[in-house]
Amino acid sequence: MKRLFLVVLFVFIYIASSAQESEQNPLIEVGDILKIGPPDATKYKYIYFPRPNFIIKKGGIINYKKMVGSKVMVTSLKEKKDGTFRIEIKKANGRKFFNSHVKVSADLKNALESGELSRL
């Protein structure tokens, strides 16, 4: 009876831990295409675009409204020590963000939850 209880306990722990893992990684892989949505405020909070002065120094034009609806491709996916996922994205059409930056990074889970990024 005691062994049966231990086996059931271990199975339950295994199922719970694998459910947490699948919850952390929302099945996004390198090469997936995502769509940029509107920000909650005037700037994006979870897509880490460069600061305006860096965009201007590289000859770019700051226009967050043009980002809405842009299709982007995931170029790298890294898990941080705290369990969150940081992704790097580039525009799917090969152009630069704000005509100045090829890649930007984003917090995957929070960007998906807030609607800044969405799956196609």
Neighbour order of strands in the largest sheet: 2-5-4-3-1-6
Shape: elongated
Helix content: 25-40%
> What sequence of helices (H) and strands (E) makes up the elements?
HEEHEEEHE
Number of E-state strands: 6
Rg result: 19 Å
- Poorly predicted ranges: 20-24
Major sheet: size, sense and barrel closure?
Answer: 6 strands, antiparallel
Strand content: 25-35%
Count of discrete alpha- or pi-helical segments spanning 4 or more residues: 3
Terminal CA distance reads: 50 Å
What's the mean pLDDT score?
86
- Given helix and strand content, the structural type is alpha+beta
Write a compact overview of the structure shown.
The chain has 120 residues and is α+β, with helices and mostly antiparallel strands. It contains 3 helices and 6 strands, in the order αββαβββαβ. Helices cover 30% and strands 25% of the residues.
How would you sum up this structure, described in words?
- The protein has 120 residues and is an alpha+beta fold.
- Helix content is 30%, strand content 25%.
- The chain is built from three helices and six strands; from the N terminus they run H-E-E-H-E-E-E-H-E.
- A six-stranded antiparallel β-sheet has the order 2-5-4-3-1-6, covered by helices on one side.
- Strand 3 and strand 4 form a beta hairpin.
- The termini are far apart.
Write the layout of secondary structure elements.
Blueprint: H1 2-24, E1 33-36, E2 47-48, H2 52-57, E3 71-79, E4 85-91, E5 103-107, H3 108-114, E6 117-119
Antiparallel strand pairs: 1-3, 1-6, 2-5, 3-4, 4-5
